[in-house]
Amino acid sequence: MNEYLDHLEKTFRSNANPEKAAEMERYMKNKFPFLGIPSPERRAISRPFLGKETRPHYNQLFEHCLFLWAQPEREFQYFALDLAQKYLNKLEAECLDMMERMVVDKPWWDTVDLIASTLMGAYFKKYPKEAPGKSKEWIASGNIWLQRCALLFQLKYKNETNASLLFDNIRKLLGSQEFFINKAIGWALRQYSKFEPNEVRSFVQIEKSRLAPLSKREASKYIYIKSIIKLHI
Fold first, then answer.
1. DSSP SS3 for 229
2. What's this model's pTM, rounded to 2 decimal places?
3. Cα distances (Å, whole numbers) of residue 16 to 1, 51, 52
């Protein structure tokens, strides 16, 4: 382990709070151990390690993130994501491999959603031609977290969303009984409906018999609110 990671680990562990750790573990359904460092405190502790002059060079990102991912406590995975976000404009192919590994290892919504919407989202903005092939691969994998990534990587694209790809990915996953898939379908549609409500309304109407009730409810929230506002204007 290098000096940077050694210092980081010692700093995090010296700020552990077992009482808070127990609360955080319960909130995350006891899926992961925690040090007990709440987010505001963790961000403050992390700040000196994320500065331009102190953080590692980009070519060390893969190695550092995978080391942090291997640590048992969840705060180290959160720091890995904070670190990776410092290099959004430099992401290359090896980083997509890293992201995929982080999705399938220790997966839960708290890390997967940020990886998908922020890291993968930035990567595919840079390399849009790769998105259809990767989406197809992830959906075919049967891994619900990679499938969720295929649904959510465009979450921040706004009106630059590739609607045909989004709708195609959703159609491939219709009929899933997985909560995290049906929730992601609704979330992705709801987010896109803020910019293209008519497209989403039309899609929901066409696929209403195949969309899970949860997906339909989530997809229609913004459209419904907007229609209510119009009625009162």
1. helix
2. 0.93
3. 21, 23, 26
